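Milestone M4 deliverable, item 7.
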Amino acid sequence: MTGDRSQQDGPGSPPGGGGPAPDILEQGGRRFPSLNWRPPRSAAILLAVGLVAGLVVGYAAGVRQAPRSASPPRPATVSPSPVLPSPAPLLAAGGPALAQTTSSCSAQVGRQLQLGVEVTNQSAADVTLGPVHPMLPLGGLRAVAQQWAPCGALSEAGRDPDLLTPGDSTWFSVTFQVLVGCPGPLPVQFTVDYISEGHLGTASLPGFPDLGQVPYAGCPTAGS
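Output delivered:
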């Protein structure tokens, strides 16, 4: 049985039996798509991708065009070096005025040992003698007294420093407390302060290379 096809298909059925046609609104004799119509999904995706790409390109262009603000380098801080005063002359012109001769002495009192050497003024000017400074590279002794006199002499209290004329000689002696059983291998050296022609000087004297030749009770001496 065949009937009129226009009567079988309803107003919402597309011609030819296809899928549902988009809703049509009629107004004033004109037909408009319904507001419920949406674009295909592929078109929406392409539109979103295009928007994202445009934003990225615009941001990159803005970064390239934006001026870079570089902080100016900080100036280096330079601390001025302190200016040190020049040291005063310690030696008289021409070298040390005092020199040690070949004469020496020693004396023992209990555990104390007195050592002395003779010095001479080898300069052409008078020399005023100052204090003596013992030098003990290996220790073993402790200085307890000194005097400008040979070993065994009594020290004169309040005596002014000796004045040596050119070519003249004198003695000094230093008393040590012995801190070891036998002082034989210990070296003893001296430095002596003096004034010559208004200049402070210091003479370094060899003293005793070691005390092996110095008699000390209960200890052997070199060569014995």
